[in-house]
Write a structure and sequence with these properties.
Glyco_trans_4-like_N, 12 strands, Rossmann fold, 6-stranded parallel beta sheet, single chain, alpha/beta, 332 residues, 17% strand
């Protein structure tokens, strides 16, 4: 079996962690900040020591692709680029500067991984030949061996879970206001997870909404994995909310893994992946979110069946793409 190493700088995505685990690969994660001097040096040292057959880079960051590409010729390994949305679509000047100059290096990769078909088409428009691009959906997360109920007031009814990274593309306030405008607060709570440190202003607004809602909205902060998994396993539904195209959020795959109804933003990407007739898509309006929540939780004619069929189709997409990736990596 070939020796495979995943490399990530600055921030480790759940996808990278789960892919490395599923493929039995090594994982090198280096916390560093621009200009990435320590990460640049440590990447060379670690790969010289490991001598892998192939290296998978988590993109962004662009300088990581440059570093691995320059090492590949000397160390003799293949380069696989796993292209996260931020490498292609920029929401800040920093993202543009740290990634756009390095996009041409994708042509030096032996294989480029896209997260969904729309992103694969975007890579094609950037000049990458289709035979070098492979769509690989996220592996389904495995529940930890032990679940632990968090010390939260979840009330006596059910709850809708919003797994949040608090990234700029997550419309958390829209989801919260849509929830309050729906019929759900009478029997459900909205539970928003994650460390809000990236968006303190949004956190203040959501805390105010939580107070005004008299406990209908619960902000958990960061949770250990056993507690987070407990929330997933007991949720009535899971929300995947984004304003960014070409993005397939981890929350969607968590809903698939735990067989929970998925409430999702009606971006072009999610509409294509889930299907235009999927009943739990919501447009970016308070009224649209409220209607999707009511429709998805109602158990109306055909809703449960459509949700179950979609979850099963996504499960097959995930496992099938991972099997294809494993076969291709063995042939690289």
């Amino acid at each position: 079996m070939k020796r495979l190493v995943f490399v990530a700088w600055a921030r480790l995505s759940r996808r990278t962690r789960d892919l490395a685990r599923a493929l039995g690969a090594g994982l090198l994660f280096l916390r560093d900040r621009p200009p990435y001097i320590r990460a640049w040096r440590e990447t060379a040292r670690a790969l010289e020591e490991a001598r892998p057959d192939a290296v998978v880079v988590q993109l962004p960051q662009g300088p990581l692709l440059l570093r691995v590409a320059t090492l590949a010729g000397r160390l003799g390994f293949r380069v696989v680029a796993d292209v996260h949305t931020g490498f292609l679509v920029y929401s800040s000047p920093a993202g543009l500067l740290l990634n756009r100059p390095f996009r041409g290096l994708l042509r030096r990769a032996d294989l480029v991984l896209a997260h969904n078909e729309p992103e694969a088409r975007l890579l094609g428009r950037a000049g990458l030949p289709g035979e070098r691009v492979l769509v690989v959906y996220d592996p389904l997360p495995r529940p930890p061996a032990r679940l632990e109920r968090p010390a939260l007031d979840l009330g006596d009814g059910g709850y809708i879970l919003v797994p949040a990274s608090w990234a700029p593309d997550e419309p958390l306030e829209l989801v919260a206001r849509g929830f309050l405008a729906s019929g759900a607060p009478g029997g459900y709570r909205l539970v928003v997870t994650g460390d809000p440190g990236r968006r303190p202003g949004l956190h203040r607004r959501l805390r105010r909404l939580a107070r005004e809602s008299r406990g209908s909205i619960v902000l958990t902060g960061f949770l250990p994995e056993p507690q987070y998994a407990w929330l997933l396993s007991h949720a009535a539904a899971v929300v995947a909310a984004t304003t960014r195209e070409y993005t397939m959020l981890s929350a969607a795959w968590e809903a698939v893994a735990y067989r929970k109804p998925l409430l999702a933003s009606a971006t072009g990407t999610l509409r294509e992946v889930l299907g235009p007739g999927y009943p739990c898509l919501f447009p970016p309006t308070v009224e649209g979110v409220a209607e999707a929540i009511d429709r998805c939780l109602s158990g109306g004619p055909g809703v449960a069946e459509a949700v179950e069929e979609t979850l099963e189709r996504l499960r097959r997409m995930s496992t099938g793409s991972l099997e294809r990736l494993a076969r291709i990596l063995e042939r690289l």
